[in-house]
Design goal:
The chain is of the alpha/beta class and 367 residues long. The chain contains 9 helices and 17 strands. Helix 3 packs across helix 9, helix 5 packs antiparallel against helix 6 and helix 7 crosses helix 9. The chain binds zinc ion (2 copies). The site of one zinc ion (ZN) has 4 residues, from loops. Pfam families: M20_dimer (PF07687), Peptidase_M20 (PF01546).
Length: 367
Amino acid sequence: MSQVFKHYQYLHTIPELGFEEHKTSAYISEQLKKAGYQVTEHVNGTTGLVALYDSGKSGPTLALRADMDALGHIIDGKHCAMHTCGHDAHSSIALTTAQQVMQENIVKKGRIKFIFQPAEELGSGALAMIEGGAIDDVDIIMGLHLRPKEECPKGFATPAMYYSASTTIEVDFIGVPAHGARPHLGINALDAASLAIQSVNAIHLNPALCYSAKATRCLCDAGVTNSIPAKANVCWDLRAPTNQAMDELKAKVLQAIEFAARSIGASANAVVSKEIPAAEINDEVTEIIAQGIKDVLGDKGLIAPVYTPGGEDFFNYPRQKPTIKAGFWGLGVDLQPGLHHPNMHFDLDAMDIGVNISKACVQRVLG
Ligand SMILES: [Zn+2]
Ligand SMILES: [Zn+2]
């Protein structure tokens, strides 16, 4: 049984939600210590950990980052954690890479660092690691994600994943309660919410950009159906291909919501509850990864960079430390029916390809 499969087999059975990856992180830490790394556990008081090996010779510090958290699903009415985004595979690939990098004595200069971060799905795991100093000394950082089959099948990999910026906005609309027979004495928060939803739908950015802003949740219940509701809560999900486009979209959305509420005398209290920056990818790092992919899969295995409206909290690393050179690649594993799907599955043999490409990248930077 291959090393990566052994790790996966265990990690897959212990899915843990963001910032609760206690067993996952304890297992990874133990393996990394055995492999000879200097391990820092509980980075910034979280389940995150960092493993370091210093060759003692001058050279860059290269970090490979993996995420560890599972997703919370509701199956048959029961809440449960499941690895439907493949973070157990990412952790298994990074852990195996760390072990084989030592076994095969690949690092000849500089320092190699493995960052196992919590809570990617919550969008705050990378930020917690950054606050804990995980990338203070890092020059180059690489991350990877399994890709759906239709985007990148097994035997192929993309050297750059251009993720979009994503933002969640939650808004409380406040009106004035009244009897349903006397609506003129109240201000209907549900009307304010629906006006705001329509106003946001009428926002336009340059249509050449791949963006969207849409309401994804509306909660309003005064407890009775014959009174005017005074409170409504609406969530919007925003996507934009660049951080600049997201800034423009966010400003327009917040203004539309505020004006829509005010048009009937209601107020809107908006909170930006989650923000993930767009991909900022360094071309030199993309080139190193592309070469690493070709080393393992040949020229035919390398596919073009992928642009996706999905978000990835990895991009907080280059956003918070602009001097870091970041690369993010996608691995084809015949993943179906899709990420975050409760029946998500993929060809487990493809994890070995992930390990080999990761090692090839380490070899190219530190070998
Ligand atoms: Zn995910
Ligand atoms: Zn993911």
